[in-house]
Specification:
The chain has 334 residues and is an alpha+beta fold. It is built from twelve helices and eleven strands.
Length: 334
C-alpha cells in the first residue's frame, strides 16, 4: 500500500468545489465524486490525475476531521495542516514588564522607534545571533533573553491510506511507502472505521535542534465490500433464500467477516425479515463483546419456473385466498 503524502495545495474548500458553509456530508460526497474522476488507477492515460488525486485527498484529510477543520477555519493551520507561525510585533510586547527596550532605555511616548530596532540589533550581536528579548519565536526554539540553543518539535505529516473492508473489520498490519520511499509499518486495529485517524508517534518531520520529531497522522479510507456493510458495530447482510426455504424453513450457510456459519430459517419467512447473529459483528473499543451481524432475508424465485410447480400453484391459488396487500390498502385509505 502506498500513502499519499502532503503536497502544496489551494484552499481545501476550493479543491473540493465547496464553501466554508459545507456540511460534513457535503464534504464526504464531494470527495467520493472527485476521487472517481481523478484516481490515477482509474485514469492511467491522464497525466494530471495523480496530482489532482493528491490535492483532493489532502483537502479531504483536513476537512473531514472536525478539529482540524475548525483550526483551519480559525487560521491556526494552513491548507497542509501545518501550524501557522504566530506573528508578533512591537505593540504585542511593548507594555510587558520585561520589555527590554523599556528596561534599558526607559522608553516612553517620545522614544524614537529607530532607537528601539537599533537596540534589538545590538542585543542580537551580544547574544551571538539570538534576539535580546522574549518573543514567541524565541520561546518556540528554546531561546530567551541572551539567546541559547534553539529547538522545536517537528511538524506532523498527514497521509491517507486505503484499507480493504475485511482488513479494517478484522484488524491487520501492513506496510506503506512514504513519498520519500521510506517504508513504514502500520497496525490497523480491529473495527477501524472509515475516516479514523491513526497516530504514529515520532514518524513525522524531524524536530529542530533537540526537539522531538512530529507524528505521522494516517487517515484510513475503508473500501466498500460487495457483500458486507457496516452500521455502527454491526455488520449488515442481505441473504437470498429460495421459495421452498421461505415456506418450509431450513438450515442455510451464511457468510460472516470471520467465516461462514449456519443459520436456521424459520418456516413461513418473508422477504425483509431480519435475523441476528450475536457477536458476529465488529470489535467494540474498550469492550470484549463484539457487535452483531444482522441478516435480512430476501426470497428469490428461479428465472425459469418448473412446470409441475407452476401447475401446483395454479390449483393452490383457486382454493387458498391470501392477499398480503390488504393492510397496505387499508392504511393508504386513511
Amino acid at each position: 500500500m502506498t500513502a499519499k503524502g502532503p503536497t502544496k495545495t489551494r484552499d481545501p474548500y476550493e479543491v473540493l468545489g465547496l464553501t466554508a458553509k459545507a456540511t460534513a456530508d457535503d464534504i464526504k460526497k464531494a470527495y467520493r465524486k472527485l476521487v472517481r474522476s481523478s484516481h490515477p488507477d482509474l485514469h492511467p492515460d491522464d497525466k494530471d490525475a495523480e496530482a489532482r488525486f493528491k490535492a483532493i485527498s489532502s483537502a479531504y484529510d483536513l476537512l473531514k476531521d472536525p478539529e482540524t477543520r475548525a483550526r483551519f477555519d480559525a487560521g491556526e493551520i494552513d491548507a497542509l495542516g501545518a501550524e501557522r507561525p504566530q506573528r508578533q510585533y512591537y505593540r504585542d510586547f511593548a507594555d510587558a514588564p520585561d520589555n527590554v527596550y523599556q528596561q534599558r532605555r526607559g522608553g516612553g511616548p517620545d522614544v524614537d522607534p529607530s532607537d528601539f530596532f537599533a537596540e534589538i540589533l545590538r542585543n542580537r550581536g551580544r547574544a551571538g545571533g539570538g534576539f535580546g528579548f522574549d518573543t514567541g519565536f524565541d520561546r518556540g526554539f528554546g531561546g530567551g533573553f541572551g539567546g541559547g540553543t534553539r529547538s522545536a518539535a517537528g511538524a506532523d505529516a498527514r497521509y491517507t491510506l486505503e484499507v480493504p473492508f475485511l482488513d479494517a473489520a478484522r484488524g491487520t498490519q501492513t506496510r506503506i511507502t512514504l513519498p520519500d520511499g521510506q517504508g513504514l509499518a502500520v497496525k490497523i486495529p480491529p473495527g477501524t472505521q472509515d475516516g479514523q485517524t491513526l497516530r504514529l508517534r515520532g514518524k513525522g518531520a524531524p524536530g529542530y535542534g533537540d526537539g522531538p520529531a512530529g507524528d505521522a497522522l494516517i487517515t484510513v479510507s475503508v473500501l466498500d465490500h460487495p457483500v458486507f456493510k457496516r452500521e455502527g458495530d454491526d455488520i449488515v447482510l442481505t441473504l437470498p433464500i429460495t421459495f421452498d426455504e421461505a415456506i418450509l424453513g431450513g438450515k442455510v450457510t451464511v457468510p460472516t467477516i470471520d467465516g461462514p456459519v449456519g443459520l436456521t430459517i424459520p418456516a413461513g419467512a418473508s422477504s425483509g425479515r431480519v435475523m441476528r447473529l450475536r457477536g458476529r459483528g465488529l470489535a467494540r473499543k474498550g469492550q470484549k463483546a463484539k457487535g452483531d451481524q444482522r441478516v435480512e432475508l430476501k426470497v428469490v424465485v428461479p428465472k425459469e419456473t418448473d412446470a409441475d410447480l407452476r401447475d401446483f400453484l395454479t390449483e393452490w391459488r383457486k382454493t387458498h385466498a391470501f392477499d398480503p396487500r390488504t393492510e397496505l390498502m387499508k392504511g393508504a385509505a386513511k
